[in-house]
């Protein structure tokens, strides 16, 4: 079982973490995390734990988030964020993925970041600013490979167009899930199709309903039906054949 921790950065009302128009970062992060969870559910042998508050009400302290992930013994920690430069509108643009810059930096984190980064840049349709290193709490205090994504600048007149697109945020979440599936070699759940019931002899030779019995017998005699499966729904082709047979019997 692969255990994946997802963390939508901040909380719904966290001040300072917003676009110049007042759109809060958590709102963008949350949509990505939700889409990521939906896609991860299409794979076998994967468990997901969300360490932010899914309602957004609380801005769960970072130490609580990383403690939960460590206690759960997650296989990977993925923090989803969106960037800000000056907090006023500008033309900077692009997507970044971070790994820890210290001693403890793991090659697995880098490998996962390298799978995620180009996929989310493509999903958002934004410039690829590459995999970078930083001393962020969630990267430093986690005991498992950890990455932090910055899926575009909230204070960019370019990037905000993508951030305001629910489709693009969904694509970003899907891209993260697909990158994790590649890394952990997850396999898609097999879709179970409904197997048609085997034909039963008594159904084949059942008697027609009493109120149709007379006409059904007449239809058999006219050669419109051979009288089998009297209570089974007819397909369009069966109906067509019955109509043609009825017309032919009129010409005789
Ligand atoms: Zn953030």
What is the element layout, followed by pairings?
Layout: E1 2-8, H1 25-40, E2 46-50, H2 62-72, E3 76-83, E4 95-100, H3 107-124, E5 128-134, H4 137-140, E6 146-153, H5 159-163, H6 166-184, H7 201-204, H8 213-221, H9 236-251
Parallel strand pairs: 1-2, 1-3, 3-6, 4-5
Antiparallel strand pairs: 4-6
This protein binds zinc ion (ZN).
Zinc ion (ZN) binds at residues 9-10, 17, 25, 81.
Structural class: alpha/beta
Number of domains: 2
Strand order of the largest sheet: 2-1-3-6-4-5
Overall outline: elongated
Mean pLDDT, to the nearest integer, reads 93
Report the helical percentage.
Answer: 40-55%
Poorly predicted ranges (pLDDT <50, ≥5 residues)?
Answer: none
**What is the name of the CATH topology of the largest domain?**
Aminopeptidase
Q: What is the gyration radius calculated from CA atoms?
A: 29 Å
CATH superfamily of the largest domain: Zn-dependent exopeptidases
Count of DSSP E strands? 6
Q: Which strand-content bin applies to the residues?
A: 15-25%
Ligand catalogue: zinc ion
The CATH architecture of the largest domain is 3-Layer(aba) Sandwich
Main sheet record: 6 strands, mixed
Brief characterization of the structure:
With 252 residues, this protein is an alpha/beta fold. It has 9 helices and 6 strands, in the order βαβαββαβαβααααα.
Walk me through the structure.
It is a single chain. By secondary structure, this protein is an alpha/beta fold. The chain folds into 2 domains: 2-184, Aminopeptidase (3-Layer(aba) Sandwich); 201-251, no CATH class. The protein is built from 9 helices and 6 strands, in the order βαβαββαβαβααααα. β1 (2-8), α1 (25-40) and β2 (46-50) form a beta-alpha-beta unit. Zinc ion binds at residues 9-10, 17, 25, 81.
